[in-house]
Design brief:
- With 677 residues, this protein is mainly α.
- The chain has 4 domains: 57-252, no CATH class; 280-377, Orthogonal Bundle (Fumarate Reductase Iron-sulfur Protein, Chain B, domain 2); 395-535, Rossmann fold, CATH 3.40.50.1860; 539-659, Rossmann fold.
- It contains 26 helices and 9 strands.
- The protein has helices spanning 17-45, 57-70, 78-112, 119-150, 159-186, 197-205, 211-235, 243-252, 285-293, 299-303, 315-328, 334-338, 340-345, 351-355, 363-377, 383-395, 431-436, 438-453, 470-474, 478-494, 505-512, 527-536, 565-573, 608-617, 629-641, 653-659; strands at residues 416-417, 426-429, 458-460, 499-502, 523-526, 547-551, 576-578, 623-626, 649-652.
- The strands form 2 sheets. A 5-stranded parallel sheet has the order 1-3-2-4-5, with helices on both faces.
- Helix 3 (78-112) packs antiparallel against helix 4 (119-150).
- The longest helix is centred in the N-terminal third of the chain and has 35 residues, at 78-112.
- The structure holds iron/sulfur cluster (2 copies).
- One iron/sulfur cluster binds at residues 303-306, 313, 315, 346-352, 362-363.
């Protein structure tokens, strides 16, 4: 008779009440403890304010399943990510395999006599689970070596970590012992044995034991394995294991709004007793849930420009302090726990949020505390910030210039001012730095020159333009931001502007995203994208010169808006050969000026901009190209601080294009301007 490829489920332990009764009782108890544990946690989340995060449930579910199963977020940091991903897939397959076994034994076979674990399917099933277990053990070992032997800086090791490693090792190893003992009695000489290679090797190693010994070992280990597996389920809410559920669920509740847009405060709300976050209860439930989803992987901290320049800000610590406050029921001011220096140090670069595998939103939590400090206490990180706010209140810019001189930079180019003639193709929203700062007015002039060469009619608001309010908003001054924004919106609407182009990514992000909450709904384009369009439309001719350069992705064009290729294409068109820096594209290191820090002195730790220009100099390139007035300002300052003036020249991409511009002869030949999207 031909051999059937299958095995007896519940071999040696029996399939009667004496096995199933305690087994299912244990399972139900574990599930009840799990449910109770999470109910307790839900009550803690509920301390926070309400927030709607369940719209579009289909898309949210797909995102959650994709991220959890494919481990896409985790594997962005390659080595530990692959260890974790492979461990997850191994363990997950074992879980699915065990569930399939239970379904056959206790349901389809028991009630309907249907067995599907047989034949070729069973052989494939056996080898898949066997290898999955092996991969899981090896990867768990690799993670153990990383955490306990290599000990990367900043990776904290707590009681939970030891428990997790110990329990998972025990579950996996006892699983193999059960398999080995069973195979030593039932399969050692069978052709089926090769389909469980790890079990087969273990079975061979146990061959000195007699059948009685093997059966006793099997039975004891089977119950021990079951007990630990149920312990694992019950422990989920009370240990770091909970991240299996909370981290995945946090993807479901992720913000689907535009990246980097802050929530707009209702400053007219007469019921509001405070603005921003004073105590933990001012945060939303999602902020508290975020803390419960953190895996303490420290990726955010490793990338934080403030933390890596010795400032007292660790985004990981902020999240975990918030969680501790929530679970300890602390009612005092959160800023006393976070500390003011930590709160003011953030540049809102989004490096933390971008890399976080748990979809945690760090930036809003920090800005919310700034809002309470500014709006409730009138507190700023320094006199210089206070004075910049006052200047902005009076003259619409933080640089101390009179509002009436805002359009003077454009006079020598005779740029159209909207008040005189609003028949233009684009409105160039210059922003404060390009309007007043001598270094940055060169960028504004370069941009206008390029547009003119392309036959584009450019208009500016001149003295009617106000600061977009971004640095004030990021510093927590929501009131001043909204005042400036409403004035700008009123002006743009008065001129019926359809398309705004900016040379400042902070203006771009604010006008394109934040102003929408206040009613502005027009096209806003960054100059990098706009110039790239003009090049593609053959409206600009550039003579490529041989330029040795590196390129800095500003946080607000890069991570906040995913614009990485257009600037690189422009640099290529200008003959630039880019040597990429150590941290580039979505991993780029901040210049230090975001989050309103452009208005503040950097008093703690080493200088972020100096660190960045050193990264640029290490490429050996002669030009440090960027796309943002804040970056340019910080790099001009940084090359001096690092004594690299002779080595590295900071420039905006518009400047390098204009330097290599092949002058057109006939603008009419380009035809009328049709705005392409
Ligand atoms: S936004 Fe940037 S500076 Fe702020 S905490 Fe995150 S990584 Fe650090
Ligand atoms: S906040 Fe995110 S990136 Fe930071 S430690 Fe927690 S899980 Fe990791």
């Amino acid at each position: 008779m031909e051999m059937e490829f299958t095995r007896e489920i519940y071999w040696n332990v029996g399939h009667g009440f004496l096995t199933l009764g305690p087994m299912y009782l244990l399972a139900l108890t574990a599930i009840a403890i799990l449910a109770y544990g999470f109910l307790l946690r839900i009550n803690v989340y509920k301390q926070g304010q309400s927030l709607a995060r369940t719209d579009n449930p289909g898309q949210r579910t797909v995102n959650t399943i994709k991220t959890a199963l494919l481990q896409t977020s985790v594997t962005r940091v390659t080595i530990p990510g692959i260890f974790h991903g492979l461990f997850f897939w191994g363990f997950f397959l074992l879980f699915i395999g065990t569930t399939i076994i239970v379904i056959q034994a206790d349901f389809t076979d028991l009630f309907f006599g249907v067995k599907f674990l047989r034949g070729t399917f069973y052989k494939l099933f056996s080898i898949t689970l066997d290898l999955a277990g092996l991969v899981a053990v090896i990867m768990l070992g690799a993670l153990f070596v990383r955490r306990y032997i290599l000990r990367p800086e900043g990776l904290e090791t707590k009681r939970d970590d030891a428990l997790m490693h110990g329990l998972l090792f025990a579950i996996l190893l006892t699983g193999f012992i059960i398999e080995g003992a069973r195979m030593a009695v039932t399969e050692i000489d069978s052709p089926l044995a090769v389909w469980s290679p790890v079990g087969f090797v273990l079975a061979k190693s146990m061959s000195s034991l007699d059948e009685g010994g093997l059966r006793s070992l099997h039975r004891f280990t089977w119950w021990f394995h079951l007990l630990m597996a149920m312990g694992f389920i019950a422990s989920l809410p009370f240990t770091k294991f909970r991240h299996i559920l909370t981290t995945s669920l946090n993807k479901f509740f992720a913000d689907h709004g535009p990246t980097g847009k802050l929530a707009t405060l209702d400053l007219e709300d007469e019921e509001a007793e405070s603005f921003g976050v004073v105590t933990l209860q001012d945060y939303t439930w999602k902020d508290i849930f975020d803390a419960d989803a953190c895996t303490l992987c420290k990726r955010c901290q490793d990338r934080c420009p403030a933390f890596t320049t010795e400032k007292p800000l660790s985004p990981m610590k902020i999240i975990n302090q918030l969680g501790d406050m929530a679970f300890q029921g602390k009612m005092d001011a959160v800023v006393d726990t976070f500390t003011r220096d930590a709160i003011w140090a953030c540049t809102t670069c989004r490096a933390c949020q971008d890399i976080c595998p748990a979809s945690i939103e760090h930036v809003g939590k920090i800005i919310d505390v700034r809002r309470s400090l500014v709006l409730m206490e009138g507190e700023f990180p320094g006199e210089e910030v206070m004075s910049a706010m006052e200047d902005t209140e009076v003259n619409g810019n933080p640089l101390g210039f009179g509002y009436a001189s805002r359009g003077e930079w454009a006079e020598e180019l005779n740029v159209t001012v909207m008040a005189d003639n609003s028949d233009v193709d684009i409105l160039y929203f210059a922003g404060c730095f390009a309007s007043f700062d001598a270094r940055n007015t060169k960028v504004a002039k370069s941009f206008v020159t390029l547009c003119r060469e392309a036959g584009i009619k450019v208009g500016i608001l001149g003295r009617e333009e106000k600061c977009c309010g971004e640095p004030m908003r990021k510093m927590g001054n929501e009131y001043l931001y909204q005042t400036l924004a409403m004035e700008n919106i009123e002006t743009l609407e008065r001129y019926n502007v359809n398309t705004v182009v900016t040379t400042c990514p902070h203006c771009f992000n604010t006008l394109a995203k934040d102003y929408r909450d206040l009613g502005l709904d027009i096209e806003v384009i960054s100059h990098a994208v706009y110039l790239d369009r003009l090049m593609k439309d053959d409206r600009l001719s550039i003579d490529g010169a041989d330029v040795s350069c590196t390129y800095h992705d500003s946080c607000y064009l890069g991570r906040h808006n995913d614009i990485y290729d257009a600037p690189r294409q422009l640099i290529g068109a200008a003959g630039g050969t880019i040597t990429e820096m150590e941290k580039n594209r979505d991993q780029a290191f901040c210049c230090s000026a975001g989050g309103g820090r452009i208005l503040a002195e950097e008093k703690i730790g080493s200088r972020i901009n100096v660190k960045r220009v050193r990264m640029a100099a290490a490429t050996g390139a002669h030009h440090l190209l960027s796309n943002c007035p804040f970056c340019l300002t910080m790099f001009e300052d940084g090359v001096k601080g690092a004594e690299l003036e002779d080595q590295l020249i900071p420039k905006d991409i518009a400047e390098i294009l204009v330097e290599n511009l092949k002058k057109k002869t006939d603008s009419a030949a380009r035809g009328p301007f049709i705005h392409s999207k």
